[in-house]
Protein: Ribosome biogenesis GTPase A
Organism: Methylomusa anaerophila
Amino acid sequence: MHIHWFPGHMAKAQRMIREQLKLIDVVIELLDARIPYSSANPVISEIIGEKPHVVALNKIDLAEPELTKQWMSHFQNMNFSVVALDAASGNGMKNLIGQVEKIAGDKLAKLAAKGIKPRAVRAMILGIPNVGKSSLINRLLGSATVRTGDKPGVTRGQQWIKVGKNLELLDTPGVLWPKLDDQEIAFKLAATGAIKDDVYDAEKVILKLVGLLRDDYSERLITRYNLPLPLPADDSELLGLIAARRGCLRSGGIVDYDKAGRIVLNEFRSGKLGGFTLDRPNTELDGMSNN
Ligand SMILES: Nc1nc2c(ncn2[C@@H]2O[C@H](COP(=O)(O)OP(=O)(O)O)[C@@H](O)[C@H]2O)c(=O)[nH]1
Ligand SMILES: [Mg+2]
């Protein structure tokens, strides 16, 4: 499951981001609202240091609203700026810009007090793959008035996007690696699509997902696939039932577990089975060393 992130890659990514952060006033840390703990980089606080940052919970349209609220309170209680986003539809964008400008305003006021001329606030987005960084940047590009040209210090080809009155956003996000060594987290990353489908054992992930749906969301499962009660305790057997309901059969009437599994995974990821939040603030709180 860990093929894409060698220690060398991580060191390089970290070095590049640290270099860019020198130019940045505010960091936007993008997390997946379905897994705010599991989608956080393991050393994010080390990378960001003292720099002000806004935690942005993205994909709220795919999460459970009640748990998103709890996560928001959790971050607020820790004195973080936090916003809820749906970068696909653009929901929450204004709020994000407002929060970034607000916390950057404090910093600019300090600079002004030292006699430094007022200037636009510079922000950059950090997050693990697939969390929605490009979607967010495209959204903000849509509302941008000017794309400012290349400036010294920024890698060639990178630009500042002028968003709103006083905000400039680096048009290239910092790509962070996810937490790699915890199998429970790896499962959540795979199930939500943060880890590419070809680098994990799909069968295992799907069976575990089916089990999770049975244990914690049985009503949705029963309704969606019109399943008879009681649900089998065995995950494969349950997947077999779903396969039968969806007509997933190979020639000769052999159950196509693979096809049924992909249907469940896709419907889980796309919201057809409802919203899911797999990390709970109460449970994950102790592990939240990074935020
Ligand atoms: N439902 C939903 N999908 C999103 C949201 N933000 C991004 N996506 C989708 O998530 C996938 C990964 O997004 P992308 O911006 O490429 O992520 P990146 O790897 O961090 O740049 C794409 O299929 C997006 O359409 C969101 O808020 N809601
Ligand atoms: Mg991207």
